[in-house]
């Protein structure tokens, strides 16, 4: 597997990223865990997800992919996985996102990040769940502080995923 540096951080990610947008609709939890195990065995350390997954987006499956990844992630070595997730933005056809308030305000972005962290339950060194502050450090290093800007209400131009590494 070939690896590359993530932005201007010292985090090394596989050039192949495993997308998980089918986990929880087209794939069962067991199948998803098998695919994650296989990807990891092949050297893939970069996993993509989003709060709106699986697709196609539906109220009854919203956030299911992150919920499926969480138990698997909890069993993995922290230094082996880089996980990116995304906050869902405005979409009038998805009123179930954050109870209909899908605007990307600092409060909603922080809430979405914290909710994703609860679902994903990523491992960490201290044993306590990471917070948006820990995620913000990676985003700041890799994307000129865009998550900091979004959470602090300042304008930003760079879109970033939260990363765990």
Total number of strands: 6
The low-pLDDT segments are 124-151, 153-165
Main sheet, how many strands, which sense, barrel?
Answer: 4 strands, mixed
H and E string: EEEHEHEHHHE
Q: What count of helical segments does DSSP give? A: 5
Distance between the termini: 18 Å
What helical percentage do the residues reach? 25-40%
Percentage beta strand: 5-15%
Shape verdict:
globular
| Oligomer status | single chain
Instruction: Please state the average pLDDT score.
Output: 76
Strand arrangement across the biggest beta sheet = 3-4-5-6
- Strand pairing plus helix content: what structural class? alpha/beta
Output the radius of gyration.
Answer: 15 Å
Description:
The chain has 165 residues and is an alpha/beta fold. It has helices at 29-41, 64-74, 106-120, 132-142, 146-152, and strands at residues 3-5, 12-14, 17-19, 46-48, 82-85, 162-164. A 4-stranded mixed beta sheet has the order 3-4-5-6. Helix 2 packs across helix 3.
Short description:
With 165 residues, this protein is α/β, with parallel strands linked by helices. It contains five helices and six strands; from the N terminus they run βββαβαβαααβ.
Give the topology, please.
Blueprint: E1 3-5, E2 12-14, E3 17-19, H1 29-41, E4 46-48, H2 64-74, E5 82-85, H3 106-120, H4 132-142, H5 146-152, E6 162-164
Parallel strand pairs: 3-4, 4-5
Antiparallel strand pairs: 1-2, 5-6
Helix pairs in contact: 2-3
Keywords, separated by commas or semicolons:
alpha/beta, globular, 5 helices, disordered C terminus, 165 residues
């Amino acid at each position: 597997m070939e690896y590359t540096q993530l932005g201007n951080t010292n985090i090394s990610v596989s050039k192949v990223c495993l997308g998980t947008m089918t986990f929880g609709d087209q794939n069962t939890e067991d199948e998803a865990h098998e695919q994650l195990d296989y990807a990891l065995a092949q050297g893939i350390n970069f996993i993509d997800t989003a709060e709106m997954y699986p697709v196609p987006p539906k109220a009854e499956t919203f956030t299911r992919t992150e919920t499926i990844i969480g138990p698997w992630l909890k069993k993995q070595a922290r230094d082996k996985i880089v996980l990116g997730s995304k906050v869902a933005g405005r979409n009038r056809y998805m009123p179930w996102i954050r109870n209909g308030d899908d605007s990307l305000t600092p409060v909603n972005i922080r809430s979405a990040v914290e909710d994703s962290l609860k679902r994903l339950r990523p491992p960490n060194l201290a044993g306590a769940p990471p917070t948006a502050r820990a995620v913000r450090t990676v985003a700041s290093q890799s994307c000129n502080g865009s998550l900091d800007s979004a959470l602090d209400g300042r304008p930003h131009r760079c879109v970033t995923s939260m990363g765990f590494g």
